[in-house]
Design brief:
The complex is a heterodimer of chains A (about 270) and B (about 290). Chain A is mostly helical and about 270 residues long. Chain A is built from 14 helices and no strands. The chains are: A mainly alpha (about 270), B mainly alpha (about 290). Chains A and B meet through helix 1, helix 3, helix 4, helix 5 and helix 10 of A and helix 1, helix 4, helix 5, helix 6 and helix 7 of B.
Chain lengths: ~270, ~290
């Protein structure tokens, strides 16, 4: 009996958190009937994918998807390189200034990022990078979360492996590339997933720095289309599903990494 | 040329660090310095910056919209205790071995990984005059007439806060779940054997042990409430009648709609100072927790 109550509670909460998605999905799969009505129309009659082909062929959705894929791929790839390089000496080398560098990186967590928005816009103008894809991912490549996560992973690699490689005459770069990196793959995967979600979902910085809506990533593009085609609720609903589905699927396959990543990021 | 071993190691270490430190210097440290300097200048991007001293800060005190925005940002902190309370309960609820519990955790987490534009679009529909929220509340007998949630100055801010709660719950749940799993079960068992009720064990054993996590989560939560932006931007843009106009929204408008970069920087400096005060206060209140910050 207690178990039944417990499950009922869990299901009720799941309905609360997922209902807006299910409702949007239903709206996107129907072509007729009222969208806004009390009581709402929950019938499953006349489902079709017409809105999906509609939004895909008449609005620049494929363009936005390609933009998002490009920005996410470049962003994730470069983040992995930059963070895995930076975290290595912080975990495994002794050098003067190490603590200063470490605490400087920690201090950035307390810096207000809203100031960054203003100044980075000015910086991008000076660099001539406004309205380029590069400007979208460049400021977030040196991820503090990533550096910490990977530093933690490097620290757990046994010293003997490094010593053995050194006796064999391997250079630092070789040790990093061929001994260390293969051993921290799970942490790299966690970071890749997090950065992918962050880039895929980003909209604030892109709408500031991109002047041509055709260059918008999907999330920003969707908001732009909602402004232009507010009356076509079903098309926008279909676009919303297209924007969300890849992330939800990626999440379901990597849930374990994900939850571990948050706790590693927030609590040491 | 041969370098000493130590010098070589140092050189290599900094070469590894170079790309990250370079990017952080340009896009993270420099903005704080330049942003603070910029608050003393009048700058519209087109003309070169003009030094005006503390003039922008003087202007700020007489600026009606600044006080409105500040008031709304302060009000938004109301969401913090609600989120923390709900997510602690949620974490306790899902912290058990039960068939399918992973799936439930995933369901609670999906809003967290959804982009703000998608959340904004969905909830604008939910809050429609003839939308789901009104239907639910009317069916439950809470409301007799439908409310237009996002165009009614007295309720809109709270409607937006509810979306913040909806999207944030899963994230804090994971934090508290980690906290709960770090508590040795012996404490709770011992209290149970001593005859303490479940509620008493929760309040007098579990919650105090969770203190460092509560500190961390409320700190993060307070700071993001004060600088709330995304949910406002995607649902109301500060309306109706400035009832959801927050500090970050004002900064955004000044910087990127009006191109008053100097004034925006002054607003940003004030917001940064407020966030810093909050983090100090929050830290002092909860200091006994013994949380190790990095």
């Amino acid at each position: 009996m207690r178990k039944v109550v417990l499950y009922a509670l869990l299901v009720a909460l799941a309905v609360f958190t997922t209902f807006p998605f299910l409702w949007t999905l239903l709206v996107s799969l129907k072509t007729s009937g009222p969208i806004f009505a009390i009581p709402p129309d929950f019938s499953l009659r006349g489902l079709s994918t017409a809105n999906y082909s509609g939004v895909w062929h008449t609005l620049p959705l494929p363009r936005y998807v390609l933009n998002s894929l490009y920005i996410s791929t470049m962003g994730v790839g470069l983040t992995l390189v930059i963070c895995s390089l930076a975290a290595y000496p912080l975990a495994r080398m002794q050098f003067p200034g190490k603590n200063i560098v470490f605490y400087a990186i920690i201090a950035t967590l307390m810096l207000p990022e809203h100031i960054g928005l203003i100044v980075n816009f000015v910086t991008m103008i000076k660099l001539g990078l406004v309205d380029t894809y590069t400007s979208v991912f460049l400021p977030s490549l040196a991820s503090i979360f990533g550096i910490f996560l990977l530093r933690q992973a490097y620290l757990s690699v046994p010293q003997e492996l490094e010593d053995a490689a050194r006796i064999d005459g391997a250079s630092d770069l070789v040790i990093w590339r061929h001994v260390m990196l293969p051993l921290i793959t799970p942490a790299l995967a966690t970071l890749a997933i997090f950065q992918f979600v962050a880039f895929w979902n980003s909209f604030l910085w892109p709408i500031i720095i991109l002047k041509t809506p055709d260059k918008y990533p999907l999330a920003a593009g969707l908001l732009y289309l909602r402004g232009l085609f507010a009356y076509n609720t079903r098309y926008i609903a279909a676009g919303t599903v297209i924007a969300t589905l890849p992330i939800v699927i990626a999440f379901l396959f990597t849930q374990r990494y994900f939850m571990r990543g948050i706790t590693a990021g927030a609590i040491r | 040329m041969t370098l000493s071993r130590r010098a070589r190691t140092t050189l290599i270490a900094y070469l590894f660090l170079l790309p990250a430190l370079g990017l952080l210097a340009v896009f993270t440290f420099y903005p704080v310095v330049y942003g603070t300097v910029l608050s003393l200048f009048s700058y519209d991007i087109i003309n070169p910056p003009r030094y005006v001293g503390l003039q922008q800060f003087h202007k700020l005190f007489g600026d009606r919209y600044f006080w409105i925005a500040l008031g709304n940002s302060a009000k938004y902190v109301l969401v913090v205790p609600v989120i923390q309370f709900c997510s602690i309960l949620l974490a306790v609820l899902v912290n058990r071995k039960l068939r399918g519990i992973q799936a439930f955790q995933a369901a609670y987490y999906v809003p967290v990984i959804t982009s703000w534009p998608v959340v904004g679009i969905m909830w604008t529909w939910m809050y429609d005059q003839a939308g789901i929220v009104n239907w639910v509340l009317r069916s439950l007998g809470v409301l007799h007439r439908s409310i237009s949630w996002l165009s009614h100055p007295t309720v809109t801010l709270y409607a937006v806060m509810f979306v913040t709660l909806w999207k944030g719950l899963g994230w804090y749940m994971v934090i508290y779940l980690a906290g709960l799993q770090s508590i040795p079960t012996e404490y709770e068992e011992a209290a149970g054997i001593d005859g303490a009720s479940r509620a008493r064990v929760f309040w007098h054993v579990t919650v105090p042990l969770l203190r460092p996590y509560v500190l961390l989560a409320s700190l993060i939560s307070t700071m993001s409430a004060v600088k709330v932006f995304e949910e406002i931007y995607v649902m109301t843009r500060g309306g109706p009648f400035f009832s959801t106009y927050t500090m970050f929204m004002y900064i955004f408008d000044e910087a990127f709609q009006e191109l008053n970069m100097g004034y925006a920087a002054a607003l940003a400096v004030v917001l940064a100072a407020i966030i810093l005060v909050f983090s100090i206060v929050n830290f002092r209140v909860f200091r006994r927790g013994g949380l190790e910050y990095y």
